Fold this protein.
Amino acid sequence: MNSPNQSPEIQKDTPGYLNKKDFSFKLWLILAWVGFLLLPWYSAYDGFWSFIWITDGYPAFDEYSPGILQIFLHRRWWLLPILIALIIPIPALKWKRNDPRYSFTLMYAGAIGFTFVISQGFILGLHGWGWDFLSNIFGPTNQTQIGMGYGALLVCGGFLFIFTQGLASRGAIKGDIFVCGSIGLSVVLIAIFVFFPVGRILISALQDDQGNYILSLFIEKITSKSIWGLDCLTSDLNCGVAWNSLWMAVLVGIITTILGLAFALLVTRTNIQAKGLVRTASLLPIITPPFVIGLALILLFGRAGAVNVFLEWAFGIPPSRWLYGLTGILIAQILAYTPIAFLVLIGVVEGVSPSMEEASQTLRASRWQSFWTITFPLMRPGLANAFLLGFIESLADFGNPLVLGGQYEVLSTQIFFSIAGAQGDQGMAAVLSIVLLLFTLSAFYAQRRWLGKKSYATVTGKGDSGVHVKLPKRVAWGAYITAFPFFTMSLIVYGMILFGGFVETWGYKHNFTLKHYIEEFSIYWSDEYGLMWEGAAWNSFWTTLQISAISAPLTAGLGLLTAYILVRQRFWGKNIFEFVTMLSFAIPGTVIGVGYILAFNVPPIEITGTGVILIVCFMFRNLPTGIRAGIASMSQLDPSLDEASLTLGAKSFTTLRKILLPLLRPALVAALVFSFVRAMTAISAVIFLVSADYDMATSYILGRVEFGDYGLAIAYSSVLIIVMLAAIGIIQVAVGKRQLGRRDSEALTI
């Protein structure tokens, strides 16, 4: 970040600097005043999306009154400083941006206003003082307040962007208003919806049952033999859950990255037939609801599974329980997380410039030398990010270890039982989460060291209509051989899943029936009411589809914006900010769910029991995938593209929209697909956040599994799979393909 003390002479030459009155400042100041004068300051009890307040006592009724009336009509005098902070920047409307008073006034007013809006929400809550020490100082109070509403949120946003425009006017980020605002928005959102809820539950690692902070208790828990024990090296006993999780995560990260690369090479660098089928098979596992892959594997390879029954009948091999443990978890997680690696890598593989490969061929390098010295090194950002995502997903997964783990204990299941078990040791869950975060931080650091500070840009904007060099025969055959077992296993597993929806009892009675679909998705026509959605699953289905459709574009948009900031901008604390973005991804969903309840069940943000908390949870839970995919793809884009656009007078927002986004279509597809299907199939956090009004498909499926109604669970899962396949097709068509001005390769690969 440039020094905020730049002289006006320097600022005038800075891109994005306007030596005139600022329209955007006027806009945000007007919006802040609208929020304070006209919109309800507090949240309505009937929900965020309801507008019944317009006809239900507005504006005099205290629950729906705007901020100005809350002060002078309802005697909430603690809101008065917000009014003062809104008045302070009014004189700046007459000043130009090169006036020294302009930036100081905007920064001062924005910082004071934003800080006070947030802090007053914590100071005074539903039952008086928000903290006990305030009651000790000032005594008890009968004043209360609920969470922020439309007015408070708009005022808060106005103050934030007024502050960032003040920073830009002083030369921060080269005076670029859009970039400053984007950084400010991203930092605030991630701080509120990632760092704050995660911090709320992690702080309990230092507390005993009475809430007292005891460091010795934390040290005792984090050094426990159950976490770090190495008995497996010298005896038949299990090692600690930390080593079990680490070993499994490393294996999953490596194998999924190799498989994802194999599929990406087959789809983009070979003329293999039925590429659409291969692409679909590689994506199938990601659209599977929880527990279904585990159940399919049990019916295939379990003690009474089809494969073991056949082996006993044909060869006399007695059935065993080999599936339950590390092997079963590994198979399930490889099936589940390979699509993530594929989505990250396919854009990276496509982005490698053929001109560089052709240059190596001109210098008489062999295809093998070209691949290992040119092509493979340029794929390193994608490989690093694919491994990181697979590693973290494996650590955070609890569904597959819960179903297939047997005696093989891992961090995620231990965290789940610490929270939801009979003992309910939240402190131990927090300690285990800290261990998990240490592993995540280590992987993140290793990734950064492996990539280094080298440039991986291959998309420069120059003419590049060459053809990719043929893959070496060893690489091509290796990709075929690597991908074929996964391809076959995916088809078998999904054949089992589709079969299970049309039989009476999956695994026992295989009589054909449609009763499961009729019970869940029946419809009929009523002369009085028209089309009636009678099936038991329709309510959760429509809710899930609505929540997923809203959260997916928000996740993708914020993810790519954050990736743009991390790759293209320099500012203080960037590395810390990048790591914090991974927190919600690295911690199991159970911890996230509990953290969201603790953080957002009380003022200043009250959203538990609403659809908003589900949207927010999915946004920031899935955000890291969009960020990592964006970083991997953007690392291939030469910064000269941005610089050329800015030199020609385009603003940063225009450059991002017209230059970078069309080149980031593979990353956009990856972010949209992943965020949509994960919102459709998430379970770990959802089980804590669903409500009677907002039930989700996965909680419904889990309920059916718990009652042994496997047919109903599989039928519902089959419908979700079809819906998600259709959604993926729509996303790919809507986003389109990236155009790089290259010819399609006509060469055979082997």
